[in-house]
Amino acid sequence: MRAIQITRLGGPETLTEVELPDPVPGPDEVLVDVEAAGVNFADAERVAGTYLSPDLPFVPGSEVAGRTEDGRRIMGLARSAYASKALVKADDVVELPEDIGAGEALALLVQGLTAWHLLGTAARLRRGESVVVNSAAGGVGHLAVQLARELGASRVIATASSREKLDLALSLGADAAVDGSAEGYAERVIEANLGNRADVVLDAVGGAVFDAALGAVAEFGRLISYGTASHRDPSPVDVGRLLESNVSVAGFWIRPLLARPGGYKAQLSELLELTAAGRIRPIAGKEYALSDAATALEDVLARRTTGKVVLRP
Q: 131: closest CA among 143, 113, 149?
């Protein structure tokens, strides 16, 4: 099979196209002819050796859509996705409808499931509550905006860094969209929420934005952190501020849930049903040939892409 392999840690330049033996499925695995493989920022971190990197050499990637040996179109998590063939655990196989594109489907896997659990599991969103989604045009954010509405949010406020991204969030159903920078954040969010603090805020920025977001959370509201895009800017929590407003702060990481056997099947199937019904719209991004994996990863790192980036073997 054709695959992208790295033999040393580093940047996208370490990705090399090679020929490898076809993987042999175990008794609990399914062999998939890969239609498309998802590209994530986390892939770049594994290649660099900064995030859960396996032993060298390895084939990066974890998301695949494709066909089984008996012709079923499926999707799921794979150990080595940047390849023409991959293995998916049988318990994790999710049937993929023919009328949903691979890019849209793969946008639902890690990012879509993260958005679903942020709202339903971590924040425990209740019907009629208001929600703020930071980085609302991102892979998780653009789906969280739509899912918040599906789950009964009374008002959805999006924050983003450019007019183009704010307009995208509005087109996806946000009631209001405001600049997401730290200075003046709370004032803008409260104004956009009709003078009220928000019940739920979802944040993957951290740092000064996280601190500013605390000032926009209502009494008994929840601020959920699921990332720290501002790596150099820590997110200290002043417990006194939490006590003053009875605010809860929680963290969320999707990986432990994905690692459970069958741990994402029901939720992913639900997201696919919502997509097929036109009730949510995952955004597919640029497609690259497998041989251009290094360029795809470079573009993701440089934030030159929008929507779900995929490789096509």
A: 149
Provide the 10 A C-beta neighbour count for residue 297. Answer: 27
pLDDT tens figures, 25-53: 999 999 999 999 999 988 999 999 988 88
Here the tokens at position 205 are: 């920025």
Where exactly are the structural domains of the chain? Answer: 2-96+283-312, 112-255
* Upper half-sphere CA count for residue 305 (Cβ side, 13 Å): 22
pLDDT value at residue 242:
75
Q: Where are the alpha helices (DSSP H) in 5-160?
A: 41-48, 102-107, 113-117, 141-150
- The topology under which CATH files domain 112-255 is Rossmann fold (3.40.50)
CA atoms within 13 A on the CB side of 239: 0
- CB count in 10 Å sphere of residue 141: 29
Please give the radius of gyration of the chain, using alpha carbons only, rounded to the nearest integer.
20
Please tell me the class of the 2-96+283-312 domain.
alpha beta
Number of H helices, E strands in the chain: 11, 15
Strand partners, 131: 156, 200
Residues 205-251 have pLDDT tens digits of: 999 999 999 999 999 999 999 987 655 566 667 777 777 778 899 99
Which stretches of 129-264 are DSSP H helices?
141-150, 163-171, 185-192, 207-214, 239-245, 255-258
